[in-house]
Design brief:
By secondary structure, the chain is an alpha/beta fold. 31% of the residues lie in helices and 22% in strands. It folds into 2 domains: 103 residues, Urease, subunit C, domain 1; 310 residues, Alpha-Beta Barrel (TIM Barrel). Strands 1, 2, 3, 4, 5, 16, 17 and 18 form an 8-stranded mixed β-sheet that branches. Strands 9-10-13-14-15 form a 5-stranded parallel β-sheet. Helix 8 links the parallel strand 13 and strand 14.
Length: 435
Amino acid sequence: MSESGGTIFIEGGRVIDPASGVDGVRTVVVRDGVIAEVVERLDRPRDARVLDARGKWVTPGFVDLHVHLREPGQEYKETVATGARAAVAGGFTSVVAMPNTAPPNDNASVTELVRARAAAAGLARVYPVGCISRAQKGEELAEYGELKVSGCVAVSDDGKPVTSSALMRRALEYAKAFGLPVAVHEEDLLLVGKGVMNEGAASTRMGLRGIPAQAEDVMVARDLALAELTGGRLHVQHVSTEGSVRAIREARGRGVQVTAEATPHHLALTDEDLARAGYDTDFKMNPPLRSERDARAVREGIADGALDAIATDHAPHSEVEKRLEFDAAANGIVGLETAFAVCLGLARQGAFPERRLVEALTSGPARAFGLPAGTLARGAAADVAILDPGLEWRCDPGAFHSKGRNTPWKGARLVGRCTHALVGGRLVHELGGAR
């Protein structure tokens, strides 16, 4: 991705940069693709480009630790280019691409293809994740050294739990040698059975097979124990239960090297929302929407830092895969273009402070995976989001930049939107613009 050589003054906005401790009206100066200064006032040269941010927030570009870009092999759902376009439209300037492609990303060739597609698109920075096990079969480890050298920033069998405790132990030990986090999808498949939604009163009323929260809890407990044993870096994906939040919080207190993420949908929605939607498969995901008690615990985990990051688990599917009976429909929703508005709504309801929201979208995820992102510090790459926290808009899936249309917020009135995004000092998104 080429860097910009021009000078841009972003003026009059509320700059929120938790990594640098900044929260107030500032001018952000971008020069030669990096942050040159963040100051209260500064005379600008006549030839500088000006972006008027009055009434808006200026933050580091968001970092999403969990997206599915579907390329290679499932380009009818999404491509690296369309996913990266959706990302910058949502304020995400760095995204971490899951390996469950076709073929899975368990070797340098797939990693290099993803990186080449991202470079060609020239939009969000795309960081590939390699597989924990070869072909995600859970039988033997992939070659982590090869994956690291080719550009992978973590390993994961996302979408599939590592059922073998012995293999999981070896993965944590092997990944530790290369400084790679092991990102885990936590579910005990025997407890899940044929379940399709959270086990509870709503599943009983709807006549759908339930998945107990403990299907997640027991796997989280196992992997925390293995992380403590090995000293490896564990990252728990899409935390959805009260028990998981409690276990992660306690493990962090003991010094276990664990980070974790939560999705906007698990923060904002519950199984009762699914029940009210009446078998709408855009409310079907894995892990499933849980109880209000679970959702409240996950929000508290974001608020107090037990959970490091908000990640979308952006999972585009075609209508053919979603417009089926509930049991048969694919799991997952798109989230890159709605995440900020959904989470801002929660912040305004008192779930967590606005500054903590920004931290969970920027420096928190960047720290979790050691990415060079999430800050407006002098000399940092000029990856910047300009956000209008008062802009009301109707969620129209047909207007998404993503190929995916599967969202539970279709038709909803949302407040808060990214108006501009810069990557390496280049303006890659302007709301209503041609970019």
